[in-house]
Fold these 3 entries.
Entry 1:
Amino acid sequence: MAGIASYGAYIPLYRLSRPDIQKAWDSMIPIPGEKAVASYDEDSITMAVAAARDCLTGIDPKKVDRLYFASTTSPYKEKQAASVVAGALGMGRNTLTMDFGGSLRAATNALRAAVDAVESGAAGNVLIACAETRIGAPNGDKEMSFGDGAAALLVAKKGPVSIEGSISVFQEFHDMWRSDKDTYVRFWEERFVREAGYLRIMPSTVAAALQKFSLSPGDIAKAAIYAPDPRLLGMAGGKMGFDPMAQLQDPLYMTVGNTGCALSLMMLVAALEDAKAGDNLLCASYGDGCDVFVLKVADGIDKIKDRRAIKRHLESKKMVPNYLKYVQWRGLMETEAPPRPPINHISIPALWRDMDWGLSLHGVKCKNCGTPQYPPQRVCVICQAMDNFEPYNFADKKATLTSFSHDNLAASIDPPSTIAAVDFEEGGRIIFNMVDRDPAEVKTGMPVEVSFRQVHFFESIHNYWWKCTPIRC
Amino acid sequence: MGNIKGIRDKVAIIGMGCTKFGERWDMSKNDLIFEATKEAIEDAKIEPKDIEAAWGGTWVSGFDGRCLADPLKLQYIPVTRVENACASGSDAFRNACYAVAAGAYDTCLAVGFEKLKDSGWSGLPDQQSLPSNRYPDRTAPGMFALMATTYFSRYDLSPEEGKRMIGSVSVKSHHNGTLNPKAHLRREVTIEQVMNASIVAWPLGLFDCCGVSDGAAAAIVVPADKAKDYRPDPVYVKALQISVCPSEGELRADYDFTQVKATVRAGEAAYAEAGITNPREEISMAELHDCFSITEAVTCEDLQFSPKGKVKEDIESGFFELTGGLPVQPDGGLKSFGHPIGASGLRMLYEMYLQIQGRADQRQIKDPKLGLTHNLGGIPISNTVSVLIIGL
């Protein structure tokens, strides 16, 4: 039997209130709550990296055998996203990287594959990172209900959570889908989707899973079951024999929104944050069928509760000032470009050559004088020793802000662009942009941390590097 | 620092020219080069065919020797294009002077030029681009604003006190610009206008930043012992120094932005070459690289005009005004005269040259002996600096 050795999650800092969306469209239907919105420089890859870094707290990424990335909103249709995530995490070159996509079951499909790999002995451990940035059409119901987020699990031979097993059914079904030509998710009539889809197969698959593992609904401490909204979950939960208030894990609708394939694993992570030894847990996803997992929590669960996971990310938030900001961040409307020179034609050989330090924030440390420096140099900036360096990871080091400016001239989707001169506690300096901050709160000397972000999308290339933020949570 | 030998008093300037700087929509770069060079040739009272070698300093407006040979129809002489960011013009001049001092030529031309207003962009192109494009857009105001943030913080200036200090620098330069018919901007501004102007890159506001301009300037140099054959009032080259920073501020956590080491080094070397031991007393006037008001303030400390951390007192006492003890930017500086990048080093020499000869009209300083020019190409964390001294 395989287990979960660690978990992590990521929710974007920014939230958009549903009443603000309603006001923008002068819409009649009041829908409460707020949705998490990935910033203009975040996407499914950057959020997967954030969740994976949370999961790998205190764990050496080079000791991970495989990286499975799951999303229906990978930035690329053809180019592996998992390799970008693995590069950003500083994983070894022999890591087996795989992309899972195509349906809202992509993340639990990845979980099943990870369990199979570990149980068969093919892999010692597998890191799963799932993330979504699904967009609903403007002035629509899905725009209201969708949200952005990510989760990560480290599946291994042993851990404080054991994965007892799973049951799956498939269903070829167009309740929600998106073809390769669509920007927005499409869906059939709500009643059909509910009654011929979710309510027909979810309860029966959950029942089959419980029976397979000789459990009754009352044995389950928490059921983390994907649902597009709480009302539907309540209806299904009743059919499954669960007490909705006590046993159903919050589907995060009011605080994050429907995060597609990432939702069931985000809900599982939230359940694990509160779990205690002896708990039986259920995790279920839905999309062209169902995957239902049964898990058991053991001693040692408290040791991994220092992750940011769901709770701390939920509590740390800023509001998107208005609906139009969201429209601009998602690129849903063409806006006037600032009169700044265009980005230079990109060099792919340079991008490839820079991969280690560009993606994983690895610099070098001079073996002669001990000074860390970034980017990697051939001649030491302090003692001028030549070619006498060892690799040095900046991503996990404490850092403070030495100087900053809020630049209104620099091209940015969300000006001002905050330039930050960041100095690392153990040596070295990097000049970053700072994001996820209120300009009025930025002060010299404040502690900061690094965050993996998309810098440009230009010439069809998603170009990634790092930025800094105030300590998130 | 090593033994500074240099070429003090071996070369003299016998003619200079400078176009009006500004938004010269009607002038191509070739028009600007021609206009500045024609004035220099006429000022030197030589024939174009007397020029034996030429150097053209420009950041992005030309690429090889043809940049001068073509518009000026220089007849098969050696011509080189020189680029050293904002020190390009000064470096073109430096090359021409070394050629004369080496005895290779007797008459050399240096032209600095830049045509920036054809692009339509706001501000200059990116300061820190990589071929992989990973770095986000970093502007000059943004990178120099870091200098203001830490200067204010290190010397306990509130944002208001700090903005007042640097704002006064711009008020002074704007005033001097009104006395200069060739300046791009010719209007007075008040300290209130400067401090309340819209923010470009906090804490730098609109009037803390020099604008983008077109322009050209030129100089003709000959051996010092032949200078009086051309005119009774040649101006002699005392020091030509360049210092280039190996991007230390980008990599080292101990660089705090309140000093530019390359300016300090170039200044020390220039003073040694020129035989100056007390710059504050011996330098009569200076044109410093005031791309941003904070840059001028820090440069006054780096060049030993003011003690470290104390430039505010000198600014407040009027020490750097036209009527003060060490006038800085008598022609309006980058702020008012404008900053066509390749031209600026030679434009600075042009003002020092006119002042030494008593031809500076309403801006005339009383009995100047030595004029210093300073250029800072790049940004505080990574830069190339020139310090030149000319005089009697």
Entry 2:
Amino acid sequence: MYKNLRWKLLVVLAVTALAVWSFSPPSQKIKLGLDLKGGLHLVLGVQTDDALKLETDTTAAQLQSALKDESVTVTTKTIDPTSFEVDGVPAASDQAFRTLADSQTSGSYDRDARGGGAYVFKMKPNIVVQRRAETVTQAIQTIERRVNELGVSEPVVMPYGARNDQIIVQLPGMSDVARAKEIIGKTAVLELKLVQAGPADRATLLAPYGGQVPADMDLVPDTSTAPGSTTGSFYLLQHVPVITGRDLRSARTTTDQYNAPAVSFTLNSDGAARFGRATASNIGRGLAIVLDNQVMSAPRIDGAITTDGQITGRFTQQEASDLSLVLRSGSLPASLTYEEQQEVGPSLGADSIRAGILASLIGLALVTAFMLTYYKLSGLNAFVSIALNLVILLGFMSYLGAVMTLPGIAGFILTIGMGVDSNVLIFERIREELEANKGARQAIAAGFDRVFITIVDTHVSSLIAAGFLFQFGTGPIRGFATTLFFGLISNVFTSVFVSRALFELELSKRRAGAAVSI
Amino acid sequence: MRIFAHANYNFIKWRWHALIVSLVLIWAGVAHVIWLGGLPLGIDFSGGTVVVLQFDHPTSVQAVRDGLGPAGQDAVVQSYGDASRHQVMVRLPETGGEGANLDELAGRIQQSIQAANIGTFTVVSRQMVGPAVGHDLQQRGIWATLTALGGILIYVAFRFRLTFAIGAIVATFHDILITLVFLTWFHYDLSLNIIAAILTIAGYSVNDTIVVFDRVREDQRLMRRAPLDEIVNAAVNQTLGRTIITSGTTFLAVLALYLFGGEVLRGFAFTMLIGIITGTYSTVFIAASIAIILSRRNRPVAAAAATTPARTTDVKRRRRA
């Protein structure tokens, strides 16, 4: 009668084998989330305005210098990160200015004439969106490179937040939080700039310029001066750097002439050529090594240097190796803020796993005991289909590389619940059909057929909910939604297909008309 | 063995009583929340700092609180987890400054307890959430819940009818609200894990309700002449065994989670326990009642509308036939 039974059982076996294969060995295939494994979880905010401001500053400066080449002198001022103002365009050169401005800025900026030779340039909205996204992507790439060099296994670096301007960084097993944050968050903008004057205090340096920082220069503090402070020791440097961190080919830890830790770097060919020209024509002048807007050191140029340089300072060995790491990984396009931080000790994580697994097993045992008492032998079918459901779910999770978290365990328990529910629905229905004096075979067939539509309705509505939770939820809610989603799918298979095959197997072994144990 | 084999309770008769009991409970909860000045939020949503310390020797919560000094005034200090582990949780509402200094306050907590000399300890976990993130998570949590419920509403309306969908959603909201009420009464803070539990409850509640509605739909074909409330009552009774068994077994599984699942899962499990009870109650008393009340309201209007343009409907029917 059940001619397809053999095939059905084969399908069940194949699916089981596939699931078991996909999560074995479990210690390697099942990835644990930070809440179970211990480690560091950070949410970083990317200050994308930094990158926009840099572009606006640079565009303004380039336009100004291009105009200067055409003998048109103007003043420029950055209004906000996305707009700048050009003032003092002489009426006679207005046409020349427009032509030049078009060729230099029209791709990214809208120009607005304010009259009297004043113009405002505003970054186009689509460019703003694009630049912000690029900044976050670049920041993620840089952080990924840095995190990889930290030697943490299976780090996670990914965009996050409603506007995608945040980054999640997860470092399983990382315990040195301060060092991790230092390495991840260091902007690491390296610039080598010619020294105009210094070191000296602010007033002395600015005295020849009437107390104002000249437009083509920067006032940069040295390492002894606290950031943001106006007192202390400063350098007056050329605004345009000779080379920047982008020109680096490599950086490594070395020692300086006093045998103190230092960082040596090698330039790429383009950087080396520019560096060679600049050093050759500035022999005897100071060259400041500026890291994150702080002068690390300012050695005198003794001769033309081309490919290699060294950064010295009062580094410890660790600081020197961390600095070479961040220089190798490139600078961040914008500064970062720390929005959220979570550290889970490995012992707490281990406790949570033990407790979670224990609770799941006790729960499963209680449910099984009840089902066996209440539904007798059929309760065994329920147990098999629920256990298989969990096995398939584990297989799905491992195959997808999904991470097991506490809410994920909760999703497993909900899956047990859904499995029980489907089985109970079917069994109750079979009992009803038996009461209506149907034979075992007919009653079982009717039970499964009638309940199938109900199971579809309940599962589809839960799948819809899980989908929305995944789409709009965050962190734990997503983990929960993932488990629930695949738990629901495998539950339809186990409680309808597998359980029915088991019933049919039982029926095929007994003589016709025997009572079913339910 | 079989429970509620031929149940024939008149649940529908009690629908108004049930609605009033639920409303009283919800209003009492709302009043309590207003009196508290809002739902108690965990640091996921409010922002703040939580540090869990594990002492080598037993210590008292009071000793830790005293050790915190002036910083301890706003602090919540609780013993945490299994008593044999001597763990203490310290929670402060702020993070100790904007931006890069998230862990400054946590560091100060550790220092002042170290200085108080009440025993050696290790830091088991720390969590710091900036206020902006908390607000963002709150928004997204609410959105996730509402869109999920909206999706279910549309599906149920499509598969059954709109009044049923509304009944299912009202019952689900009812369960969420009652659960929130109990959470505040038992001093649980709303965290992301608890939101996940509440969403689970919503899923269960809808699941339960759909099972009953499916039975209503089936019975409507079998009992064509019977009024809707009779059909609904029959469906609730026929599925009663299944409702109780499913809820009971799930309750067992979650009870195991509550008792043995450890500190981190306890709030989650508690939420589920409450939700399962209220979900079962709302399936039997609330969802179907709302559907009946709404269907009754609609019927006279629909009947009146049907009499006037009788001819057109007749034509349509004939065409369809």
Entry 3:
Amino acid sequence: MKLNRRKFLTLSAASVGAVALGGRAGALKAPWTVPQKWYEEQVSTVYSYCENCFWKCGITVKVAGGKVRKIDGQKHNPKSRGRLCPRGQAGVAQLYDPDRLKRPLIRVEGSERGEGKYREASWDEALDYIAARMLKIKDEYGPEAIAWFGHGSGDSWFVEYLPAAWGSPNAAKPAVSVCTAPRETASQWTFGRGVGGHEPVDWENTEYIVLIGHHIGEDTHNTQLQEFAAALRRGAKLVVVDPRFSTAASKADRWLPIKPGTDTALLLAWINVLIEEGLYDREYVEKYTVGLAELAEHVKDKTPEWAASITDLPADTIRAVARELAAHAPKAVLPPGRHTVWYGSDTQRMRALYIVNALLGNYGVPGGFYLAKKPYLEKYPHPPFPLEPAAGGCSGSSGGSEEVPEGYKPRADKGKFFAKTTAIQELIEPMLSGKPYPIRGLICYGTNLFHSIPNVPRTKEALRKLDLYVAIDVLPMEHVMWADVILPECTYLERYDDLVAIAHKTPFIELRQPAVKPLWDSKPGWWIMRELAIKLGLEKFVPWKSIEEYLDTRLQAIGSSLEEMKKKGTLVQRGRPYLNDWERWHMNPFKTPSGKIELYSKTFAEHGFDPLPDYTPPMPAPTGYYRLLYGRSPVHSFAKTQNNWVLMELKPENEVWISNAEGKKLGLRQGEYVWLENDAGVREGPVRVRLTERIRNDCVYLVHGFGHKSRGLRLAFGRGASDNALQTRYVLDKISGGAGLRNNFVKIVPNAAKPRLKRISTLARERRL
Amino acid sequence: MARYAMVIDLESCVGCSACAAACVLENEVPPGHNRLWIRQRELGVFPELTVEYRPEQCLHCENPPCVPACPTGASYKNEDGLVLVKYERCIACGACVAACPYDARFMNPAGYVDKCTFCEHRIADGLDPACVETCPTGCRVFGDLDDPTSAVREALAKAGRIDVLRPEMGTEPKLFYLNTPSNRGLDEAEEVQQ
Amino acid sequence: MTTFYGIPGGGHFWHWTTQIHFLLVALAGGFTLYTALLGMKNGSEGRKLAPWALLLIAADLFMLWAESPARFRFTQFWLFLGIHPKAAIWWGAWGLALSALLLLVIILQKQAGKYWYALLAVCSTIVVLYPGYALAANAARPLWDHLLLALFPATALLLALALLIAWRGEEAVRWLELTSWVSLLLALLLPAALASGGVDQARALALLLRRGLLFGLGTLLVLLAALTARRTPALAAACAFAGAWLIRGWLVAEGQHSLFTHGF
């Protein structure tokens, strides 16, 4: 205990009288007793699923004295298997974060968006306000003039359910076009199946792993990390292709420090070796694929030597890896990664990656990719929705109907790219220009608009022009404090949500149920959705009277019940993981036009895209600038955990990684603070410098999610730099609609002042609930 | 009557810090201190690089210097080899904090010296310590050294290389690091980023 | 390059309040020893000093109580009823407590016998010796070399003698001079002792040479005290006090610095 002078003097003066009996919490306890620990009280457990990233691990929540104390995995849950990552463990701190939104807020009349002037309101008033304006917009412009952005478990209410009932096709999730779109689209048109939220990589049986980017260990999707570690422990070989020596690279047998943006060339060279040297799985390719001849012709000149000059890797190494892959096939796999929107040419890169996998004969085979099966689960029987927006999502389908029902408009980004799912960043344009038609309102659920969508100034300009902007969130993020109406959702520990269905080797269903009652006047997303639907006159689409009824009905339809699920937490079903499982039932898993794996995509050709992947060089860096790369920290999720004191004590700020050699040239010192300025003149920072050997000289690296500008986030404010703020340029992938974010370049501006911020620990102590 | 020990396989550890977060919640560790933290060491020169991720906490030494330093007997080693603190006997003088060569102890503002207890309260229920249970890579193993069938003995038998921190201090730690990726062992780094 | 997730150990555990304690305990111990020795020679003289010695001990105990995060357990004297000879603070607790009791006996008795003062001498010697032991016993802190077992008692006596001279004039000037020379010698021996040790000691020496300006200053002041003791006792006392305080203060502060977590 640090005794400051004032305390000491007070003590001396009152030394006799300072017996301070029962100072804390009203309990009359002798001051020399040691406070009781939570586990010494009566502890009850509640099953649920986590919300601290989008993996959705099954959790066991321990409650004592009416408060959540500890969160652990569920032993029988195929995602967590009894283990949890640091963000899952630290969920307790989010629940009791005193900076949380507490009551509905309405922006003061006449104030500017972003000024932050709000007044408290009742739920009724807030929802009436929203409904009135939404209906007005609908009258004037049509239901499509309301856009719905969302991410997290509640996006099922605000990006799928309600937009469908309302009739707007402009529902989007950043998880698609700012994350997984290329890998989903490429997979759809190669294998006729998406990848899905739980990547169907057969880690359990693999012997040789090649990671393209994909920094497992810093990206900590629980099960993936468990299985990855187990595979390595079993002796599986690992090759990591990454401009940075990631955590995964530190476990690898080979690290290929590739020049950023050239991965497709590498993959094409591997295809070349597999075909030219006859190392591909002939039987598999013959039986399950089409297009080998065209492919062989296409890669004839894409030799390792050709790739070497492009990728900055030795040709021998390139050749050796291809041979090693073949030697271990089919138990050799190139996992797809997750965030694949890199350069705008990403669908083709993913196509190349999938083709390598197909040539190894590993798709649908142990040691490669298994065939994930969706669990059997019925929807709640509601009247048919006017339309189904194609928002997709990392745990949603990657399809979507192209048909536009009578009386409704197509999605506003249609025609900008080939894929059927919406692209969130393409829905900003209609808010500004009114083309192809105006979007006048935005309902934004749990989506950090200023930390996910590129070109933040454009987003801000768009928000200013809207007639209505509603934010539904847990914390006062910067974008939340721009809304006309702010609706406080309670955290995942205080609410029910829709059932989660995970397509998997052993498909399963997870239940979320509250462990404690919502704090303050916060409400669950389902309740907000339902109340808003009723006020919008859409009552018939929400015939269920309570969430319990909704869930129970769905579960009864598959022979279970809410009572049972509450006790179990997770319901596991049987899967159909490999090709012979499908063949036994005379079923074909490849839902492509040809019914086979398409090495050559006729559909792409028909739409004017390369039917076979080609290498497109990325935009080069201007002189004096470094390419800005970004990634994850195992301790944080996106931009959502930087106000969590447990996680911030583990990592309070991000740093810009730059090579020692470049740092020396610039005269930088370890740990000094600098500004980052991108080639559009946007400045961000100050951010701490990390001089390291672990990165190439042509790029710098930032962990995503820092650089918060909202003062309401007392821990997060002012720490580190936001990569998204520097991503003012993106390159649209015309096939998937993905926004390639790695075409932004920064230079270092030294001598920034170190931000004068209180220690995390001090703030954590000061703002205790 | 056991001899509890822990093993961490540094070949598997990725420094995800799930253990550190779990410990804070399980043991109500106050802000400003950690019972458990992760050290990340970068060694080598591009492109020949090694990174070691290494959790550090109390090592529950067989010969702990923190125990004799305590004037009230609050700091003690129990019959199962756990080095613990009887909080109600602790006068927070800090002598044990000074004595620990591993900086494992800290002054809990609640008025006693605190540190990793190998989650003694969980062992009593037949459970693993919180850090071991949650570790996603499975690099942590806990058990009784005196039991030849224990997981910890098995892990030690299979290990390529076994290291302990600062063996020259004569403390005989019971937290063993396996398979450190650094061929120089667990040497402290020369340069620490503050 | 080393970085951390989380807050590693190795922060300072003894703060400015402990520094005050190190000062008070030196004054209390030294003064009480002087009282005891004086009392053995001349009972009534000793008895005159006894209340002041008791006051110093009380001040030190109060300081320890006030700054302890476990204040309300601190006064539970039965916690000290075990036997912990390797714990310096155990010795210190008994030394301070018994010295205080003996002083009380001496004050209450009109004419305390020599044996009371002899006992007091033993107890107060423990008080003089234990702080050095509290530091030197930590093999984990190489700056707190075994030399401190002698340096701290010497500087403790130096502080007490300086106080005495300030209060009672030239009575203890010869002792001040002698103790100054001894303290000086011991302080100068510290770098040598570290140089002849192992890797950890070498790092402690590097720290001393790099950041030990105050230690050097303290040593100089003690030298000044030794040289001017006979001619200008008041100045010498002031220099001795400041010098001894700096030497001890710097060692207590810097010695906590963690070799393990932060390196030197």
